């Protein structure tokens, strides 16, 4: 069964000044489907999310909505620790979205219940954990029930437990028919959302052919090491499922899948990458 198309980008391009960041992007967002965007830093993921959300204009091409009442909820990559409670914040955001009174109160209650934050609805955001803040960030995007929920790196900085809760919530939202479009750095999380995955490379969008994860494919490795940034960027181009981040101690924390073990590791060493530790992990462990 094909799902109903809600929004279509047709040959959409975006320039900042004379610099073209996105070129001829064509994509359809459909009801109840999850679309994941991947790409290296600065590849244009946030730009594309903002373009889909209607927050920035296209330079050329078309953005077509299935009907004029399509609601798009946009979640930026982080919410600041404001000196107000989640209820106060959502009341403010709800009024901006044109909801008020009893309807708004009810919706805020419903969202706190859905995200398991009822106990904290009168706690100031300054006392919220990263996971609680991220849930509030998503709640503001859902204050008017969206047809499309757009998320910019929703799992960034979350611990395993918060990541698990958020994954579960997003699956429920998707199953209820909301389309999800998210920039997600981590291929393991992307695979959990049963999504259509696309890559942005050199400004162009291409579909990633994901083979569904089977039991033995959930093994991955976490390598703590040292390597120059431009060299690891080059390796990520060669091995798209490799991700990395810097640790507080200045080391790189690199994850790669079991299938890349024989390919990635020798390349990493050849490029002068140093290994401080290498741990075999399984998804969910
Ligand atoms: N408002 C702007 N004006 C000028 N250039 C911009 C603007 N916003 C983004 N850019 C540039 O466009 C390119 C794409 O940026 P964008 O934030 O969309 O990438 P990204 O893939 O989301 O990056 P990251 O993963 O680091 O968040 C970058 O080179 C960035 O510097």
TrEMBL record:
Alphabetically ordered keywords of this record: ATP-binding, Nucleotide-binding, Transport
Xref: Pfam families: ABC_tran
SMART domains in the cross-refs: AAA
ABC transporter domain: residues covered: 7-227
Gene3D superfamilies: P-loop containing nucleotide triphosphate hydrolases
InterPro entries: AAA+_ATPase, ABC_transporter-like_ATP-bd, ABC_Transporter_VariousFunc, P-loop_NTPase
GO molecular function, one term: ATP binding
Protein name: ABC transporter ATP-binding protein
Species name: Paenibacillus silvae
Keyword Glycoprotein: no
Nucleotide-binding listed as a keyword: yes
């Amino acid at each position: 069964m094909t799902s109903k198309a809600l929004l279509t980008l047709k040959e959409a391009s975006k320039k900042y000044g004379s610099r073209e960041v996105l070129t001829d992007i064509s994509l359809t967002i459909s009801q109840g489907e999850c679309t994941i965007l991947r790409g290296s830093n600065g590849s244009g993921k946030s730009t594309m999310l903002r373009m889909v959300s209607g927050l920035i204009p296209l330079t050329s091409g078309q953005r077509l909505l299935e009907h004029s009442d399509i609601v798009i909820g946009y979640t930026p990559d982080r919410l600041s620790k404001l000196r107000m409670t989640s209820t106060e914040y959502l009341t403010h955001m709800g009024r901006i979205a044109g909801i008020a009174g009893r309807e708004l109160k009810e919706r805020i209650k419903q969202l706190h219940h859905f995200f398991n934050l009822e106990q904290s609805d009168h706690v100031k955001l300054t006392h919220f954990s990263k996971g609680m803040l991220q849930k509030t960030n998503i709640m503001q995007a859902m204050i008017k029930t969206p047809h499309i929920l757009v998320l910019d790196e929703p799992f960034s900085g979350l611990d395993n437990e918060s990541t698990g809760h958020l994954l579960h919530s997003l699956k429920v939202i998707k199953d209820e028919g909301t389309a999800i479009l998210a920039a997600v750095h981590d291929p393991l999380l992307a695979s959990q959302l049963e999504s259509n995955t696309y890559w942005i490379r050199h400004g162009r969008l291409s579909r990633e052919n994901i083979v569904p994860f089977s039991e033995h494919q959930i093994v991955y490795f976490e390598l703590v090491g040292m390597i120059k940034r431009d060299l690891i960027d080059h390796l990520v181009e060669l091995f798209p499922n490799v991700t990395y981040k810097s640790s507080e101690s200045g080391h790189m924390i690199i994850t790669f899948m079991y299938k890349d073990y024989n390919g990635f590791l020798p390349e990493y060493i050849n490029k002068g990458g140093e290994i401080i530790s290498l741990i075999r992990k399984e998804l969910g462990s």
